[in-house]
Design goal:
The protein has 147 residues and is α+β, with helices and mostly antiparallel strands. It has one domain. It is built from six helices and nine strands; from the N terminus they run H-E-E-H-E-E-E-E-H-E-E-E-H-H-H. It has helices at 11-22, 41-53, 86-92, 117-122, 128-139, 141-146, and strands spanning 34-35, 38-39, 57-61, 66-73, 76-80, 84-85, 102-103, 106-108, 114-116. A hairpin with a 4-residue loop joins strand 3 (57-61) and strand 4. The longest helix has 13 residues, at 41-53. The chain is globular.
Amino acid sequence: MEGIGMTTPNKERIELFCKALESGEYTQTHNYLHDKNGFCCLGVATDIFHKQTGFGEWKFIESTGFYEFKFEEEGMVITESTGMSKVIGNWYGFDNNVDEYFTDLLMRDENGELVYATYLNDCDKLDFNQISTIIRQNFIKEQENVS
């Protein structure tokens, strides 16, 4: 059985994301991908994408106090501050789009309930280590059990 909302996951990229969450390099924040205090979990995924591909850039918006991640896709400039782009989700192999532009990680929590990563980060206030564990259980270990 494939992980929830997955097409073909790129386990190596997802593992980079999980290791970054656990590394202590990122301070956790809520409600924005990246603000002056840190990153949300999807902001970390976006930053790993940026570091691995060199694609896009973070720009601090003084008037709002948060960063936007800006890049060009097929001639269209995409700017994100609260959600992870579908382009970035597809790079990881996630296929659970919120709308035509954004994606989130739909997965089962420790109680088997369907939840989005943003909910775990912003509402449940799980720490990055807890979120990483849930991501691995859904998108890496689930895939290994298929083999």
